[in-house]
Amino acid sequence: AMLRLRLLTWDVKDTLLRLRRPVGQSYAAEARAQGLRVQPEALGRAFREAYGAQSRRFPNYGRGQGLSSRQWWVDVVKQAFVLSGVQDGAALTALAEKLYRDYCGSHNWEVLPGAEETLSRCRQRGFRMGVVSNFDNRLENILSQCSLRHHFDFVLTSEAAGVAKPDGRIFEAALRLGGVPPEQAAHIGDDYTRDYRAARAVGMHSFLLRTAGHGPEPEVPPEHVLPTLSHLLARIEK
């Protein structure tokens, strides 16, 4: 039976947009421009470590603990360089502020294959559209710079919602913004737990974007899996 859907909600990172190159490479290039020598691979590992520690200590960009997401990120970037052996505190603050700004637009992000066309076709079919993303408040700007913002009726970030996927409350907030009950909505994302399962837990439909190279994951019915975004409308309309 054809799904009676009225609202589609979308994850962003690795669903609609991806980083143009690994974080370690981007950070190292910017550091070189400031006269600092850092190995991209070491910096990438240090970034993952700093990001993980900060996320455990201050979940969801420190939203509940009085940190601004800007400060949260600047601290992560500085810590990544410190862990990579860079000592110069003053240089690091300037560098971290610059990198925070650099990730605000299309300079560091690119649209995934099939995203633009799929979003346009979904719009033409009359679906309401929204973003549900574990992201900070730069997301509106990033989507605008990458020419995707106009597809969406709303953009809901975990920073704005005060809760992050897989917490069902962020999906409930999206359903209120979209004005539909959960059975008339579907979420599209690339993460089994945060996207596919979390949306289903509140009664929504969901589709898992599973591009080549994904590791072994829990079984998902084939009709819920998208090998590419271009498969979405066939899945919805069959």
Automatic annotation (TrEMBL):
GO cellular component, one term: nucleus
CDD domains the UniProt entry points to: HAD_dREG-2_like
InterPro entries: HAD-like_hydrolase_domain (IPR051828), HAD-like_sf (IPR036412), HAD-SF_hydro_IA (IPR006439), HAD-SF_hydro_IA_REG-2-like (IPR011949), HAD-SF_hydro_IA_REG-2-like_cap (IPR044924), HAD_sf (IPR023214)
Domain of life where this protein originates: Eukaryota
PANTHER family: HALOACID DEHALOGENASE-LIKE HYDROLASE DOMAIN-CONTAINING PROTEIN 3, PTHR46191
Sequence similarity: Belongs to the HAD-like hydrolase superfamily.
Protein name, entry field: Haloacid dehalogenase-like hydrolase domain-containing protein 3
Organism annotation: Oxyruncus cristatus
Name of the gene encoding the protein in the UniProt record: Hdhd3
